[in-house]
């Protein structure tokens, strides 16, 4: 893998793969958390509206440009990122890269197309609210980060989306779509030195089309006055939704993207507790053994200033209290009793295996590379990751469990 920073400040990373398929992504360090001064949902609206026309292409042309080549074009928005990405045959890679830059630099946000997209987003908000499993997590995060920009939902609200204008979208792009906030990542079947030269040439060709960079990189380390998250007290709320299934979230604050080695310890603990494997502690007890839930997981989301760890599950009403009691017992055991060295060794191997298998997925690798470049300006190698995980002790995990899951720090939101 090769990575670096181009003369205009835009970062890049390339990785050779043995595939006939190529992946590219343009990651931009702005999202919901950067919406101060804009209506809630502006970042997400921008992501949608970029595809509605550029100075060179109409929306219909953009939508079919890669389809005609058998490729795919997509995008997503998070609390701190907007990401444009494409999957194509390797001979069409540079067409895809050129299109990503065109969308980021030349979107025109025509009024008629904006109104069409507004309707799409409003429908998305309604459908999201109809999914209580997703809505409950969104509301939980909003309560946890109350008073901070991370409180706002990515989609915005019906009222806020109706307020967004083309001028808002243009202003947001002009403010945040700057080279030092961007990372271009490529995974393709070419030698990495050649890929790097091609990437630098493409960046140089479009460099003059970007606004002048700001004086600092606001993506990293709370730069440019990003507000610090002030921990609110824990909360316990029950909302009667009159649903057939109960949906619940339990959790609280966790280490941020920049807290090393704490974030690695938290990541391993979360994987042990409720990761994707069927032998995770929560899944093994509540689903496989008791049959109380269809699914249960523990997630860990890392932001620049903080993080969130959350246990989410759905169950029938009569099983809610037994589920909460069982989760409480598992968390108590993790807080009080260190894992044996043998169990830790097994869990470590499992996580390393999951990471290795995940790294073989070209699209996932390309997107992860972009996130790493925005956050740190570099990408942790597999050897570095293994070294960090091997340094974690049973006592490290116990202390992290005591920190994340102290009874007085766990918040709850339950939809009945």
Tell me the radius of gyration: 22 Å
Count of helical stretches: 15
Q: Encode the helix/strand succession as letters.
A: EEEHHEEHHHHHEHEEHHEEHHHHHE
Specify the CATH architecture of the largest domain.
2-Layer Sandwich
Roughly what is the average pLDDT, rounded to an integer? 93
Q: State the separation between the terminal residues, measured CA to CA.
A: 49 Å
- Largest beta sheet: strand ordering: 1-2-6-3-5-4
The largest pleated sheet is described as:
6 strands, mixed
Q: How many E-type strands?
A: 11
- What proportion strand? 15-25%
- Roughly what percent helix? 40-55%
CATH topology title of the largest domain: Cytochrome Bc1 Complex, Chain A, domain 1
What is the H level of CATH, i.e. the homologous superfamily of the largest domain? Answer: Metalloenzyme, LuxS/M16 peptidase-like
At the first level of CATH, the class of the largest domain is Alpha Beta
Structural class: alpha+beta
Number of domains: 2
* Low-confidence runs: 221-225
Backbone shape: globular
